[in-house]
C-alpha cells in the first residue's frame, strides 16, 4: 500500500531541541533522545468515515513529533497501518450495501488526499492489515506454541497473564479494563476464556465474512492488536521511540499490543514512550463514527476552506487536550492565517531569529503548539504595528512556520 506525497520541509538555521513529551505509561514527561534515526509507529484508520477532525487532530500531533525530530537533524522512520479488514468496516459495508474492499479503498484514498492537503508528512511504510497477514500468522503460531495463547472453539486468544508487564501502559484497574474491553471490540463475557480480558489473536472463518489461509491456525483473519504488532516489529523492531494514537487506543489496543510484543520477544518495553492525543467533540459529545457527529476534512475542503486554516484550527489546541470543534474555532484560524500571510508578504520586518527559538522551545515542551502560535502572533503584531528593517525576517518566519508547524504561508 502506498502513502501520500511528502511536502518539502524547509531547512532552518541552527538546530532544534530534544523533545520532552508526556508518556502515558509513566504518567509524566520523558525526554526523547533517539539515535540518528528516530522511530515512530502511529495507529492508522479503519477506513470508513475518513477523515474526520478527530483523525486530523491525532495525525497532526504526530506530524509535529516528526518535525521536531527533523529539526534536530535526525532522520525519522515513521510507520502507520490501515485496518482494512475489521468488524466495524464489514458492518458499515453491509449497512451501505457496498463491497467492503471497495469501501476500504475509497476511504483510504480520501484519507491520503486529506493528509496531503494538510501537509502531514507521510510514513515510510504504510501497511494494510490484509497485506500484513503473511507476517501475522507466524507470530500467532509462536504465541500459541509457547503457551502464551490458546484455542477456543477454533479462535486463538492471547493470555494476558503471559506478559508480566501487562497493565503497565494504561495503569487502569481491572474493572475499567473490563468495561473498556466490552466497549471497544473485546468480548470479556465469552465463556471459556482463561481471563475475561484475553484478546483475540486469530478469528476462525465465519460464514459470509472474509478469511485467509492461516496455516496451522486454519482459515480466518487476524485480531486488531496483533496487526499493529506484526507491522511494528517488522519495520521498527522492539524499543522504538514513540507509539502514538488517540486516548481511545490506550486500552485495549496499545496495552494489548505491548503485551503481545513483549511476550513474543521477551523484551520490555515495546516503545520508549506511549503518546496519546485528546478527543475532539462536536455539540458537547466526542466526535465519533458511532454517534455520527463528524466534521470531515474533505467536506471543509469542498466548501473552499483553506487547508492551512484547518491545520491552524488543530494547532490552536494542545494535542493532549479534549476540545470542541466550533465554527468560531475555524473562523479564528482563517483570520490568523490571513494576518500571518499579510505579515510575511512585506519586504522586511522585525528580526525573526528569536521567534524561531521560541517556536522550537514551545514544541520541545510537550508539543505546546498554542504557545508556538502565540509567538508567531506576537511577531506578526510587531510587523503590522512597527515593521522592521530585516529583509530576511519574513522569509525566515515563513520557512519556520512551514518546517515546524506544517503551515504554508
Q: What would your notes on this structure say?
A:
The protein is 43% helix and 16% strand. The chain is of the alpha/beta class. It folds into 2 domains: 257 residues, Rossmann fold, CATH 3.40.50.620; 109 residues, Four Helix Bundle (Hemerythrin (Met), subunit A). Helix 4 crosses helix 6. The longest helix is centred in the first third of the chain and has 19 residues. The mean pLDDT is 96.
Quantity of strands, as a count: 14
Tertiary shape: globular
* CATH class value of the largest domain: Alpha Beta
Give the fraction of residues assigned to helices: 40-55%
Assembly state (oligomeric):
single chain
Number of helices: 13
Q: Can you tell me the CATH superfamily of the largest domain?
A: HUPs
Report the biggest beta sheet as strand number plus sense, adding barrel if it closes: 5 strands, parallel
Radius of gyration: 22 Å
Strand order of the largest sheet: 5-4-3-10-11
Arithmetic mean pLDDT: 96
Number of domains: 2
Broad structural category = alpha/beta
Low-confidence stretches: none
Q: Report strand %.
A: 15-25%
Question: Secondary structure elements and their pairing?
Answer:
Blueprint: E1 19-23, E2 28-32, E3 37-42, H1 53-71, E4 75-82, H2 87-96, H3 100-117, E5 125-128, H4 129-145, E6 149-152, E7 155-158, H5 174-183, E8 200-204, E9 220-222, H6 224-235, E10 240-246, H7 250-265, E11 271-277, E12 280-282, E13 285-286, H8 297-302, H9 307-315, E14 323-324, H10 327-344, H11 353-364, H12 369-385, H13 393-405
Parallel strand pairs: 3-4, 3-10, 4-5, 10-11, 12-14
Antiparallel strand pairs: 1-2, 6-7, 7-8, 8-9, 12-13
Helix pairs in contact: 4-6, 6-7, 9-10, 10-12, 11-12, 11-13
